[in-house]
Structure formats: C-alpha cells, structure tokens
Structure to design on (214 residues):
C-alpha cells in the first residue's frame, strides 16, 4: 500500500513539473481565459464514496504552519455548504488530495510568487493524460476526469496573511481540484479578487457544482 502510494505521488510530481501554473490556479478549468475553444470540455473530479463525489484531503502541512488550521476549516466549510452529492473530508490514509509545503527549490521550479497552487492530472475516458490546459482537445464536449491532486503552499510565505484568508485560500484551491476555473469578474470564491475574506460559496459556485455534478 505504501509503495503504491509512493508511486502515485511520484507520478503526480512528474506531471506537476510539466504544468504551466499561474498564481493560485490549476490550469485545467472550463472557463480559463484564452481558451474559449475549449469551453465545452467538462472537467470533473471522479472519485466517489457511497455514490457521492468525495475529496479525501490529507493536510500534511507542519503543525506550526500558519495555514494548517485554514485547511481543516476549509474542509468543514465546503462540506457544509456544498450540494448533498459533494463531500470533502479529512483523510490521513487513502487520500486523493495531498496538501503540503514543499522545499523552496521545488516551489521555485513551479512558480515564483503567490501563496498556494493546485495541480491536477486530468485524464480522458480513453486513458490519455493532459499536461496543461492548452494540451486539452479543442472543441470537444467530452468529459475529462480528475482523480488525484496536490495543493502546495509557498514555504516562505506562511506568516504573511491572516487566519480568515487562509480559510479562503484553501477553499479556492479545493474548488480548482473539483475542476472549477477562475471565474474572472464574477462573484465567486474562484475569483481571487472577489471579497478576499469571504468563506461562503456564492450562487455562482453552487451553480457550478450543480452543472458539473448533476
């Protein structure tokens, strides 16, 4: 089991280093700017428990990391506010989402600023992996599945922001893991400029959940 987990994480890391990642973004989202020809693609988290789409999150941040409690709070907040067929839960084993603070060298190889990034490995029904949003098929109405993810926190920035903002950041990244893009200019937790400390899913966010997970 440990070997299987280690291999999965290694594969995930190899894919992660090939991604073009921007601030706070996972680049596999139906409404990202600049990719209007891919707007029909459905990106969906596929892991289920008891017929519900489930995000088992392992919070591996160090106990003294300022964002650690924010991750736990975000899990509880999303689990309370999301539609009934969506579950977000803590998972020390059998996790599908790993939250961690990497070594500075690893972080700097992906991004030079920002607080957190989410990285997923989308895969088509035929088993094709996609390494970047631009790698997704254009003008397609197919469903691309997400089954694993990592959320990385900037190792040198954990004390620069307040507690409520940590809750928001973690919720923002987990929404990316579910397949939601940056809703630029919308009242949404996926828009980094919207109501910085809000931890309440907006109607737009709820509608996105219902659209993606009917």
């Amino acid at each position: 089991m440990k070997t299987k987990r280690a291999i999965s994480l290694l594969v995930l890391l190899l894919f992660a280093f090939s991604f073009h990642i921007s601030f706070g973004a996972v680049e596999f989202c139906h409404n990202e700017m600049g990719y209007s020809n891919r707007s029909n693609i459905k990106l969906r988290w596929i892991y289920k428990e008891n017929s519900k789409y489930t995000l088992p999150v392992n919070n591996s941040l160090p106990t003294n990391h300022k964002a650690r409690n924010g991750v736990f709070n975000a899990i509880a907040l999303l689990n309370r506010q999301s539609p009934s067929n969506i579950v977000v839960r803590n998972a020390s084993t059998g996790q599908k989402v790993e939250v961690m603070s990497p070594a500075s060298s690893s972080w700097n190889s992906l991004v030079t600023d920002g607080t957190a990034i989410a990285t997923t490995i989308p895969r088509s029904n035929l088993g094709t992996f996609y390494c970047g949003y631009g790698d997704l098929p254009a003008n397609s109405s197919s469903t691309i599945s997400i089954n694993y993810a990592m959320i990385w926190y900037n190792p040198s920035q954990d004390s620069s922001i307040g507690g409520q903002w940590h809750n928001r950041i973690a919720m923002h990244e987990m929404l990316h893991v579910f397949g939601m893009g940056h809703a630029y200019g919308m009242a949404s937790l996926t828009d980094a400029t919207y109501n910085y400390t809000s931890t309440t899913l907006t109607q737009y966010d709820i509608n996105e959940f219902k659209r993606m997970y009917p």
Strands lie at 42-45, 48-49, 52-59, 86-90, 97-100, 116-123, 143-153.
